[in-house]
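Colleagues,

For the teaching module next term, I've prepared a clean inverse folding example: a structure given as tokens, and then the sequence designed for it. I'd like students to try predicting residues themselves before seeing the answer, so please don't circulate the second half yet.
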């Protein structure tokens, strides 16, 4: 029997990161009984808390963990569910989980899997250093700043390295659950879960969900003004040399400062602003691909398709089909 632990963190959490994993693994137990005619569960599911009662939303939702970290024994895999709100505060009140997770991983060989911003609690253990980890794209910059030793891959839906797993934002957790189920139960059971719970199978990229707002949480005022200039003039042909000259900075120093402030080169930033403008037009209007391409400042259709797919994971036509209301009918 495979022992599964699902953390019930203290503080602000996303309840929907707890219930699906419990229900899916419980569903697998029921399915195994129906097809293999035995009564023993395939998974032993533990809800793990720091205490035996965890209240959420002013007591309107109450979790009663089946075990606490000081009582539970060896687990095979532990799911670190989503924490939210003030991250510093959330990490502080959930700090007792950290040595326990390290012990489970190092002493007992348990695998660890984080959902969404649960990656912060996982990273606090130090077990992610040098490993690839994903999280919600909204908190990617904060994660990167807090854990420079971790290889953040915010475009990934799933990461898997040395028994450490992570999922991207929000309901990407469902894709990670399927991935882990395939590992423990085989692809046939994972496919059954995909059909039963209507989860897209083998989704590996979350770029299509990213909303690019420009990284302006820095103190370099000249670079911030350059960003604003790009965002106002993106349909025009903007050259890096032109930007550097406009803001009276040498080209080399401008590129260095821009990259340091925004984590993008000036060229990447221009591309991302153009792509975000194209996404909004595809979502709201019935314009053709060519019309949108010209309006955001591209004249080469091949270059536009390549750059659009680089930042969204989809071709322009696939993105339009997926998100434009009139085409979805």
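(Answer key — instructors only)
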């Amino acid at each position: 029997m495979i022992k599964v632990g699902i953390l019930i963190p203290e503080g602000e959490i996303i309840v929907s990161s707890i219930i699906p994993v419990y229900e899916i693994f419980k569903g697998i137990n029921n399915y195994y009984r129906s097809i293999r005619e035995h009564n023993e569960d395939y998974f032993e599911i533990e809800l793990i808390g720091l205490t035996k009662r965890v209240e959420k939303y002013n007591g309107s939702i109450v979790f009663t963990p089946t075990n606490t970290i000081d009582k539970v024994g060896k687990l095979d895999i532990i799911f670190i569910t989503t924490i939210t709100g003030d991250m510093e505060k959330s990490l502080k009140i959930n700090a007792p989980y950290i040595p326990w997770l390290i012990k489970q991983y190092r002493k007992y060989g348990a695998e660890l899997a984080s959902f969404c911003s649960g990656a912060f609690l996982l990273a606090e253990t130090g077990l992610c250093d040098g490993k690839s980890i994903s999280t919600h794209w909204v908190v990617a910059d904060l994660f990167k700043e807090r854990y420079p030793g971790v290889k953040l891959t915010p475009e990934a839906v799933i990461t898997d390295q040395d028994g450490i797993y992570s999922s991207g934002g929000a309901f990407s957790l469902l894709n990670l659950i399927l991935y882990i189920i395939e590992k423990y139960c085989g692809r046939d059971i994972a496919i059954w879960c995909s059909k039963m719970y209507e989860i897209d199978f083998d989704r590996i990229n979350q770029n299509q969900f990213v909303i690019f707002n420009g990284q302006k949480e820095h103190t370099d005022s000249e670079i911030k003004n350059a960003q604003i200039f790009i965002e106002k003039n993106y349909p025009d042909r903007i050259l890096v040399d032109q930007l550097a000259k406009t803001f009276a900075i040498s080209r080399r120093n401008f590129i260095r400062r821009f990259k340091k402030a925004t984590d993008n080169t000036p060229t990447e930033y221009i591309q991302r602003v153009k792509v975000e403008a194209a996404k909004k037009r595809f979502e709201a209007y019935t314009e053709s691909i060519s019309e949108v391409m010209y309006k955001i400042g591209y004249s080469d259709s091949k270059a536009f398709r390549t750059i659009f797919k680089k930042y969204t994971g989809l071709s322009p036509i696939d993105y339009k089909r997926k998100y434009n209301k009139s085409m979805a009918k």
